[in-house]
Write a structure and sequence with these properties.
Blueprint (H helix, E strand, L loop, with lengths): L1 H27 L6 H15 L4 H4 L4 H25 L2 H18 L20
Helix pairs in contact: 1-2, 1-5, 2-4, 4-5
């Protein structure tokens, strides 16, 4: 149940945070060439680097968190493109919520609990 609520939190609250970056960067780069590309890349970079806090809050290793940051950066670029192309933040919210739900459902240690889709545990010995 907690993972479902976390999925919704990521899908809504993180998207609001993310698009605040897009708006600020849009204003900052309003007269630059390659404005859209800069907005997509920089907003994704800022948003993904914020995930390094997971080292402390979820006690993840630096390497695992770095892989998460890379994943968030690329996924963030995709969501930014959807948002800038459609102008609809609800689409990014639905995609983000669905993505988080799938990730939390398939990861055995999501938020320190067993997931309902995780079927293999290498420590079981079989």
């Amino acid at each position: 149940m907690v993972s479902h609520l976390t999925s919704i939190n990521g899908g809504i609250l993180e998207v609001f945070e993310r698009y605040a970056f897009i708006v600020v960067l849009g204003l900052a780069f309003k007269s630059k060439k390659m404005r859209v590309e800069l907005i997509i890349l920089l907003s994704s970079l800022i948003f993904s680097l914020n995930h390094y806090v997971n080292i402390l809050s979820e006690q993840e290793s630096f390497m695992n968190t770095t892989f998460q940051v890379i994943d968030v950066f690329s996924f963030g670029c995709l969501l930014a493109i959807f948002y800038l192309y459609t102008g609809k933040s609800w689409l990014a919210m639905i995609i983000h919520t669905t993505w988080d739900f799938i990730i939390f459902a398939m990861t055995s240690d999501a938020l320190g609990m067993e997931s309902f889709l995780y079927v293999y545990d290498g420590s079981a010995g079989y």
